[in-house]
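Researcher: Quick test of sequence recovery. Tokens follow.
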């Protein structure tokens, strides 16, 4: 009988998975990482939260708050566990009795499938939208700060004050078109070669070095920033986090409570990292972003040329275009932006005319940070 199994381990502090070997013992699990580190999980301290149904990955957890997690894809792991430690394994699902659970599950599924469908497609999104529109800005800022501490900690930021200044000036130019906005907008550059930028709740905008280096003009970066700023103003990120995160985060949003900042930040970072905005939200951010550029006197064609350059240079290199891949329908988006820009009248003013834009690409070299994905 097999006593050693392959799985993945999450330490509860980061979103990274580690491949591990799991050895079944009579009193607990011995976990061995690829680097040779070992850990001991006694059976009484383990709880099973997933893996009771056919085809479902086995998930074991240990600890409170944000627990440590073991994931095993082979359900035979549980059968072996019951054979090795029958007295202590009663707390875990036994696949040999799965047929009884399957029958009950089918009956229950038939009874609730209609209600579940209604809640998933209409109820939960509607509730998330309602809650997001009513949460205090101070709560959004706290959530955003917690997320930023996970995804863009100070040690990862490029803080050269000379080169960050023109980026801040672009943000100021754009946000001056929002005189009544309750947000204090903050922009930061992260020393990461990925082609990405994102907005976090509460006014935080993060630009990765890889994306900044691909911009050829200040207008191109302004197009990216205008789009991300609209996600903040429209509370798209807040709505997405509330809709897809845990009930604890939803309760904190409803009550305006703080909760555990570290736990909320880690959960928000994980959620923001794996989810994408809906097409409706992306189109709204594009349209409102173009209007913001026009209101600020910035040529909206910079947004178009940025996407065109990425689409051209990224042919045959899908891993290169992270920003494009997380913002779907690139060709349709360019066509839509061209249509919006064609409606603009007047002569926009050159943004930062006396500044050598190539110089801003050196912002991370000046601070000496070395973060890599």
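Model:
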């Amino acid at each position: 009988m097999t006593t050693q199994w392959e799985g993945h381990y999450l330490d509860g502090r980061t979103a990274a998975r580690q491949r591990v070997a799991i050895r079944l013992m009579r009193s607990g699990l011995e976990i061995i990482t690829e680097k040779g580190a070992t850990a001991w999980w006694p059976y009484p301290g383990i709880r099973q939260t997933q893996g009771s149904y056919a085809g479902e990955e086995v998930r074991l957890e240990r600890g409170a708050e944000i627990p440590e997690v073991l994931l095993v894809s082979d359900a035979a792991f549980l059968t072996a566990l019951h054979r090795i430690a029958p007295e202590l394994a009663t707390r875990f699902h036994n696949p040999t009795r799965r047929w009884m659970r399957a029958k009950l599950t089918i009956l229950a599924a038939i009874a609730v499938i209609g209600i579940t469908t209604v809640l998933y497609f209409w109820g939960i999104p509607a509730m998330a939208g309602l809650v997001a529109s009513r949460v205090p800005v101070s709560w959004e800022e706290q959530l955003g700060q917690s997320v930023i501490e996970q995804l863009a900690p100070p040690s990862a930021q490029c803080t050269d004050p000379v080169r960050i200044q023109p980026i801040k000036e672009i943000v100021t130019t754009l946000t001056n078109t929002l005189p009544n906005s309750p947000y204090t907008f903050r922009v930061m550059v992260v020393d990461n070669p990925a082609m990405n930028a994102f907005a976090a709740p509460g006014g935080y905008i993060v630009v990765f070095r890889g994306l900044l280096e691909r911009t050829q003009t200040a207008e191109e970066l302004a197009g990216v920033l205008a789009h991300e700023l609209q996600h903040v103003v429209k509370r798209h990120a807040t709505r997405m986090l509330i809709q897809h995160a845990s009930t604890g985060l939803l309760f904190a949003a409803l009550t305006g409570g703080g909760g555990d900042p570290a736990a909320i930040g880690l959960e928000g970072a994980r959620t923001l990292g794996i989810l994408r905005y809906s097409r409706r939200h992306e189109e709204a951010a594009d349209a409102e972003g173009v209007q913001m550029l026009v209101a600020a006197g910035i040529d909206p064609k910079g947004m178009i040329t940025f996407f065109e350059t990425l689409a051209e240079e990224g042919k045959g290199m899908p891993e290169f275009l992270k920003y494009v891949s997380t913002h779907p329908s690139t060709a349709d988006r360019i066509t839509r932006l061209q249509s919006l820009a064609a409606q603009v009248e007047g002569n926009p003013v050159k943004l930062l005319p006396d500044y050598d834009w190539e110089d801003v690409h050196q912002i991370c070299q000046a601070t000496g940070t070395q973060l890599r994905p």
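The mean pLDDT is 79.
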